[in-house]
Amino acid sequence: MATVPNILAMLNESAGRGVVRLVTAGPATEEAVLLRETGLQPEFGSVTWSAPPSYRALLADHNHFACYREFDGRAQQFVLVDEEGIIDLNADLVHLPEGVSREPGQYLSTNHLVGFAEAGDEAAWCFDVTAADHNGEYPVYYHHQDEPRARYADGGAWENPVDAVPDFPSFHVWFETIAAAFTATEPPPWFHELGAPVVVFDR
Predict the structure, then answer these.
(1) What is the pTM of this model?
(2) Comparing C-alpha atoms, which of 129, 84, 85, 83 is closest to residue 110?
(3) pLDDT tier, 130 (very low <50, low <70, confident <90, very high otherwise)
C-alpha cells in the first residue's frame, strides 16, 4: 500500500504532465483539525468524531486539496475541504433535517456520516464515524443528497442493508484508489459516474 507522501507524489507528477490540475493549501494547524472535529452542527442530535490517522497524515501537508480532471468530455473532481468547508459541506449535503422519512414513523438520520470531500454536483465523500476500527480509521462512503446513505434514527439500522458494506475500508484506501483513478491513462468505469446519485465501485 502506498504511503500518503507516495500518493501525493503520484498526483503531483500527473499534474506536471497536465493530466490533472491541483489546487492546494499548506499544512493544517491543530486548530484547523480541532474545528473539523468540533464545529459540525447537524440540524438535530450531535456528531462526535476524531480525525483518523490516515486523514491526519494528509492534513499534515495540506489543509485543502483539490484535484480536477477532464476526460472523455466530462469534468470530474475531488476536493478535500478545509475546516470551514467541512462545516458547510455537512450542513448543505450530508446531514438530514429532523423528521425525514420514506415510510410513516420511520425517520432517517445521516448523523453517522462526516463529509470530508466534495465529489462533484451534490455528492460528498464521508466517514462513517460510528464504525472506527482498532486503528481509529473509519470506513468511507460515497453519499449523494438525492440518495443518502441513511440509517433509521430509531435503532440505527441501515435504511438500505447493502450500505452495511462501505465503499472503501479507510481514508487511506480511498485516497490511493481515487488518486489512481484520476491519474490513470484510462480511468475505471465508475470515474464517469461521479456526481451521480448512485455509484458502484470496484470491490
Answers:
(1) 0.96
(2) 129
(3) very high
Establish if 199 belongs to a structural domain: no
Phi/psi of residue 136, nearest 5 degrees = 80, 15
What is the rounded distance in angstroms from the CA atom of residue 160 to the CA atom of residue 152? 10
Residue 55's CB: how many other CB atoms inside 10 A? 27
Residue 32 lies in a domain: yes
CATH number of 90's domain: 3.40.1580.10
Domain with 18 in it: 4-193
- Express each pLDDT in 156-169 by its tens digit: 999 999 999 999 99
**Per-residue pLDDT at 84:** 97
Residue with the three cell numbers 450530508 = 94
Q: Helix, strand or coil for residue 124?
A: strand
User: 79: which residues sit within 8 A by CB, 6+ positions away?
Assistant: 64, 65, 66, 67, 85, 117, 118
Q: What's the first-to-final CA gap in the chain, in angstroms?
A: 16
Return the percentage of the chain with pLDDT > 90, whole number: 94
Residue 200 maps to a domain: no
Contact by Cβ (8 Å): 108, 100: yes
Number of domains into which the chain is organized: 1
> Residue 203 domain-assigned?
no
Task: Name every residue whose Cβ is closer than 8 Å to that of residue 137 and which is 6 or more positions away in sequence.
Answer: 52, 53, 54, 169, 170, 171, 172
